[in-house]
């Protein structure tokens, strides 16, 4: 099938799948916008670029740029904030993925099968499945609004917490360990969706160079979790129930419970 025809088919399937989930979707008029769709959630509107994912037997690959041709040949154009998300549909797997634009460079691979050689950082396809990622976490969500409540819970645990709210620091708090080590951390609210605890992993969360940990507070489970920031690249979720399908790697929430992780070893 010609690439543009396959692209049209991918977009048609994506619209049908989104509508089947009851999500409001709009298509921009004309060809002047860089996004294909606008999806609506209670938090707002999101510009979405639809991509065809190619399955090579181990990973789903897609391009994080557009291509047009001029007199000099093919020209690659990065999206650079022109879209909010990539909606990737893989025909071979009949699966749809949602990936934040800032998480993608020129190309991205979503791993379905375990690699033959151990890799330091893996973007597991299961973590990006559409139903795991929708609706997107809002960067100004309850994790910020409930900041004081989360800090209070930490202090009730006996943790020495220094609130960095009034500073320009990229972290939210500093956690002092019993050994008097100071650890920079972000605090975020988590929610349970489809058997996983999801939390904000967008660009509002500092990278591993700025913080050592993320504290996730899940009111639904009455639990806090401590996650080392260097343990994930772009996204992470904590599973609280068995998945319907076998997955090569699972981050069980019980392993990250605060009392299991504190103080860090």
TrEMBL record:
Q: Where is the PD(D/E)XK endonuclease domain?
A: 1-130, 145-258
The record's annotation in InterPro entries points to:
PD(D/E)XK_Endonuc, tRNA_endonuc-like_dom_sf
Tell me, what is one Gene Ontology molecular-function annotation carried by this entry? nucleic acid binding
Out of the domains of life, which is the source? Archaea
Record-linked Pfam families: PDDEXK_5 (PF11645)
Q: What is this protein called?
A: PD(D/E)XK endonuclease domain-containing protein
Source organism: Halobacterium hubeiense
């Amino acid at each position: 099938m010609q690439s543009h025809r396959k692209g049209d088919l991918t977009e048609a399937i994506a619209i049908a799948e989104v509508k089947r989930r009851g999500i409001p979707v709009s298509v921009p008029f004309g060809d002047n916008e860089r996004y294909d769709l606008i999806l609506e959630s209670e938090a707002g509107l999101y510009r979405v670029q639809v991509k065809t994912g190619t399955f090579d037997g181990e990973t789903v690959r897609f391009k994080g740029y557009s291509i047009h041709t001029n007199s000099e040949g093919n020209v690659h154009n990065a999206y650079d904030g022109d879209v909010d998300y990539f909606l990737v549909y893989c025909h071979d797997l009949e699966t749809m993925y949602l990936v934040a634009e800032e998480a993608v460079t020129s190309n991205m691979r979503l791993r379905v099968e375990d690699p033959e050689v151990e890799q330091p950082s893996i973007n597991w396809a299961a973590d990006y499945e559409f139903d795991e990622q929708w609706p997107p976490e809002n960067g100004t969500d309850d994790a910020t609004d409930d900041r004081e409540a989360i800090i209070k819970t930490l202090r009730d645990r006996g943790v020495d917490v220094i609130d960095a709210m009034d500073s320009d620091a990229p972290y939210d708090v500093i956690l002092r360990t019993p050994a008097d080590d100071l650890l920079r951390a972000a605090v975020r609210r988590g929610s349970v969706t489809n058997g996983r605890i999801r939390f904000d992993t967008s660009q509002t969360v500092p990278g591993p160079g700025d913080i050592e940990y993320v504290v996730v507070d899940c009111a639904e489970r009455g639990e806090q979790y401590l996650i080392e920031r260097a343990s994930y690249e772009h996204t992470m979720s904590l599973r609280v129930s068995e998945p319907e399908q076998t997955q090569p790697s699972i981050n069980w929430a019980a392993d990250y419970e605060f009392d299991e992780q504190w103080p860090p070893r």
